[in-house]
Design goal:
The complex is a heterodimer of chains A (252) and B (207).
Chain A lengths: L14 H5 L5 H13 L1 H19 L9 H10 L11 E4 L7 H22 L8 H15 L5 E6 L6 E7 L4 E7 L8 E8 L5 E7 L7 E4 L9 E8 L12 E4 L2
Chain B lengths: L1 H18 L10 H9 L3 H23 L2 H17 L11 H23 L4 H18 L4 H11 L3 H11 L5 H8 L3 H19 L4
Helix pairs in contact in B: 2-3, 3-4, 3-5, 4-5, 6-7, 6-8, 7-10, 8-10, 9-10
Classes of the chains: A alpha+beta (252), B mainly alpha (207).
Chain lengths: 252, 207
């Protein structure tokens, strides 16, 4: 239970200081990386964090009576974390009234989307079954993440809608589309992360299923991108976009 | 298959959390309240406030000591609970742990930014371990919860208790704790960890 190796060499030694917020800022990232890599350390941190919370609860004392009104006034003016207002925002877990109905509805919706996405999955010729399974796992992880949110947009000049489902907690995002026309012969759809300065980074290529549906696990993080764009590119994809985007979804 | 299992597990959790609660029916678990707040349920936030405002204020005040700053930070924490509720994952821990973690981090952030401009009085700080501990002992009789925590603190060695209270209630980094107590850093880390592990076991906290 007690490790006594040299400081810095054994991450377990830091678990107590970590949950007590006593690690200096510069040590936090490396400790958290160690936690991510070690389920046993994660379990220890979870237990110690819950223990520290008990110490916190034991310090409770009556809050000033006028605090409530101030908090509520500020809350009434505070948007909950959500995507920018010029985009269509569809929180996966938030809709209509009774929560039970809502949650079951959302769950059913997720399953429907998954069924749709997975059955519609079309991958490049290079990709084998394990790659497909891996991508399917990623799509389902993102769609079921507690903080998953959806930002959608319509394809310009042709039928179809696309949506980005991003889960900040997973630093991961997927693209879902429906009603997409098949790309012209010799071409494929390609997705791009576009940054504020206009530079583009490929998020992957895909072809929709015959139903027009697609679900794509995006390559790379959506975090630094200002928008996700979709273009038609020669089969196999391009290093940089060669045509005007027919879909752009603002991300930040 | 792992995909299938993972997904079904998540859906089951959704059902468990939301399944039995009608709007405005109580009493909800704090975890259910958090999930409702995450969906923008303003009335649920009122009830979340009732549950946790005293706990947040008490902890923040313990760390910061200054009443005006404590009120400010408490307000920040409570508004943050509203704003970031969607990041709460009932699979990962209790709502109380979530709330206390946020409150403690915010209080410590404030201490550290204050320290950047003026070093705190080390003489006062050195007197702190006993003082902090006594305050706990004094206010604790009200609830069984507090009694349990105090008992668990009492079970620690004096050195462990000192390191844990300085780090957690005092808001000091382990480096500062080591300087205050004039012991090697590794010793402080070990005391904090061993102290918390011992408390975890005596409180029966599920890891």
């Amino acid at each position: 239970m007690t490790e006594r190796s040299e400081p810095g060499t054994n991450p377990y030694l830091d678990s107590g200081a970590y949950v007590a917020d006593a690690l200096p800022a510069e040590d936090i990232a490396s400790f958290e990386a160690a936690v991510d890599a070690d389920p046993a350390l994660q379990a220890e941190v979870d237990g110690l964090r819950a223990t520290a919370a008990r110490l916190g609860l034991a310090a409770a004392e009556p809050a000033p009576a006028d605090l409530r009104a101030r908090v509520m006034a500020e809350v009434d003016q505070t948007r909950q974390d959500a995507p920018p207002k010029d985009s269509v925002v569809v929180p996966l877990r938030a809709r209509s009234s009774p929560q039970a109905v809502r949650l079951l509805g959302a769950a059913a919706g997720i399953l429907a989307v998954l069924a749709l996405g997975l059955s519609a999955w079309v991958v490049g010729l290079r990709q084998d079954n394990s790659a497909l399974t891996q991508a399917g796992i990623e799509v389902s992880r993102v769609l079921t993440a507690p903080d998953a949110r959806t930002i959608s947009g319509a394809v310009e000049g042709q039928s179809g809608r696309g949506a980005v489902v991003a889960a900040p907690s997973l630093a991961s995002a997927v693209f879902i589309a429906n009603d997409l026309a098949a790309p012209p012969d010799g071409q494929t759809y390609q997705l791009w992360f576009v940054t504020a300065d206009g530079s583009a980074r490929s998020g992957g290529t895909f072809d929709p299923a015959s139903s027009g549906d697609a679900a794509v696990s995006l390559i790379g993080s959506a975090e630094t991108a200002a928008a996700l764009a979709m273009t038609l590119e020669p089969s196999g994809g391009s290093p940089q976009p060669t045509t005007t985007p027919i879909l752009a979804i603002p991300l930040a | 298959m792992s995909t299938e299992d993972g997904r079904l597990a998540r859906v089951t959790v959704l059902r468990t959390v939301g399944g039995s609660s009608e709007p405005s029916a109580g009493p909800e678990t704090p975890e259910q309240l958090m999930v409702m707040v995450a969906r923008g349920d303003r009335a649920a936030f009122d009830r979340l406030y009732d549950r946790f405002a005293d706990a947040v204020f008490g902890l923040v005040r313990r760390v910061l000591r200054d009443p005006a700053q404590s009120e400010e930070v408490t307000q920040e924490v409570l508004v943050d609970l509203w704003r970031t509720a969607s990041a709460f994952d009932p699979d990962r821990g209790s709502a109380a742990t979530w709330v206390m973690t946020l409150a403690h981090r915010r209080a410590v952030d404030r201490v550290r930014s204050a320290q950047a401009s003026s070093a705190r009085d080390t003489r006062v700080a050195l007197l702190e371990p006993t003082a902090a501990y006594d305050v706990v002992a004094e206010t604790v009789e009200r609830t069984l919860e507090r009694e349990q925590v105090v008992r668990a603190l009492t079970d620690l060695t004096a050195l462990q208790r000192e390191a844990v209270t300085l780090a957690f209630y005092g808001g000091y980094t382990h480096v500062q704790v080591a300087e205050l107590l004039d012991v090697p850093l590794g010793t402080v880390k070990t005391r904090i960890r061993d102290g918390l592990l011992r408390m975890r076991d005596s409180l029966g906290v599920a890891g």
